Amino acid sequence: MKTEKFQFPGSDGQLLAASLDLPEGTPVVYALFAHCFTCGQNVLAAKRIAEGLAKHGIATLRFDFTGIGASEGEFANTTFSSNIGDLVLAADHLRKTRRAPSILIGHSLGGAAILAATSMIPEAKCVATVAAPSDPSHVTHWFKDQIPEIREEGELEVSLAGRPFRIKREFLDDIAEHKLTETVSKFHKPLLLFHSPTDDTVGIDNATHLFIAAKHPKSFISLTGADHLLTQKRDAVYVADMIAAWAMRYLDAAPAAETGTIPEMADGVVVQETGTSHLQQLISAGKHRMIADEPESVGGHDTGPAPYDFLLASLGACTSMTMRLYAERKSIPLDRITVALKHGRVYAKDCEDCETKEGMISKIDREITIEGNLDAEQRKKLMEIADKCPVHRTLTSEIKIVTTAKD
Description:
Elements: E1 2-9, E2 15-22, E3 29-34, H1 44-54, E4 58-63, H2 80-97, E5 103-107, H3 109-117, E6 126-130, H4 147-153, E7 155-160, E8 163-168, H5 169-176, H6 180-185, E9 191-195, H7 205-213, E10 218-222, H8 233-247, E11 269-273, E12 281-285, E13 288-292, H9 307-329, E14 334-347, E15 360-372, H10 376-386, H11 390-396
Parallel strand pairs: 3-4, 3-5, 5-6, 6-9, 9-10
Antiparallel strand pairs: 1-2, 2-4, 7-8, 11-12, 12-13, 14-15
């Protein structure tokens, strides 16, 4: 991943510090990330999520809101509305310099801000939030005992996360005016909510309120064991992986469509380089889209299963489906089938029933677990049926592959 540093003007004209995290090659899409209240673009959650998205070909813009981190301006002069304005201008900067963001992501109060800004970023196809409050004024609980003094004095320095920040009366008035559940109820974008049941900063009930208010398509993923700031790297990586997989369903263009036209093959599968990394491929099977890659150990970026993984998956799926259909036809009380497969290479001379006797041959180990109240004869018959699945027959029969060059 490479990161470009730059500045762009915020809602009050001050320059905001930004980072654009880019994947190798041409980005599949662009995302805009809003950080948590008083955090900044370099908070670990933001950096790790952006890094994880880059592995999936997604470029992510993260920046410091006015008065935060390396951005100009005074935090005391900001409001929730000015944060929304900063997000809209960040999207505008991407629109002018690269491409408008298709994915909007927000963490904590940044999640609330991204929800409020969505209607002003028309190119956005889907929105994801992490630990977002259902009411932006939730942040005032951190200094609730000082609210009367802020209202009386007009401004007061408070301690947030061990750092001093000045809060003005205008901030309180502005944040109270935003009714986020009403905004979400009018949403016309796919929404994905992440929240931890043990979040002691923004309770899980906030996710419940947002989920109930939202209309479909909407999804929820529980971040069991995670804290509010996603301080464990695995949690941020998980969020990035889930966003990447979920978002692809709602994007107009599949990854490879960014770099060329996907050729049509009736009732077939098309594989095309995405251009986002050295070996990454987009697999198109009808309306379905999948990513293939290789492990980092052999030059890939491990963003998807390897070719042999798909081969084994095909055999495993066909095996299980064939056994299931047979069991249903014969009224066999089969509960579940599990097929585990592994591909390797062995010396032909070590295979007694193989026609080839020289060199190396491919060997697939297939282990089938049958669950259910079956007798020995039923289990034996199902194991025989496993070898009759169409993919098994294809792999063990003569195959002719006809290759043609297409202009």
